[in-house]
Amino acid sequence: MKRKTNINKGVFDTLDREGSFRLGVSLLVIFFLVCCLPGPSRADIYRYIDSEGIVHYTNTPTASGFKLYIREKPVGITVGSVSKTYDAIIRKAQVKYGIAFSLIKAVIHAESGFNPRAVSKKGAKGLMQIMPDNYRALSVLDPFDPSQNIMGGTRYLKQLLNRYDAKLPLALAAYNAGPTAVDRYRRIPPYTETQNYVQKVMTLYNRYKNI
What we know:
Layout: H1 2-13, H2 17-36, E1 45-49, E2 55-58, E3 67-70, H3 87-97, H4 101-112, H5 146-163, H6 168-177, H7 179-185, H8 192-209
Antiparallel strand pairs: 1-2, 1-3
Helix pairs in contact: 3-5, 4-8, 5-6, 6-7, 6-8
């Protein structure tokens, strides 16, 4: 061990002034890149209750009153190789309902993994996993038709965002657990599945915004 230390010391001792300068510049550049490049987006969810008892949720807190509510967990999904098959339909839904392309895609990713024939244990079908009870209200005749499903699912998401005053975590919780559960608790319901779902969609949403 002592010999190894001496050898390393000897190497650095023999650097001439020009080599030392180049090494210093290289280290400075590396330090700059590490410090300045944006880190990965997080989807931690923070909650704040104001003086009127109104609950606010965000993943980008701007005041000290916000407290951590749900911490982001690894979702085990990458977005680099995700199918772009339905991007054209998603963009149509984006324009029609004013919902961000990256959010619609995140919901589809979380709901069905881009499988248009997906069917849940509860009977939800298609890319955005629409329940049969909602077909008529969302103008969905064939839930396995990608266009009808994405347009219907985005329409429903828009309705939920309007219902919960654009509070995305609450709208996502209602998409997963139903509005009744969210209304009952006046917050994200204390269901592990729903809390994990909200965190997962928020994580995917942030990732899609950055690609």
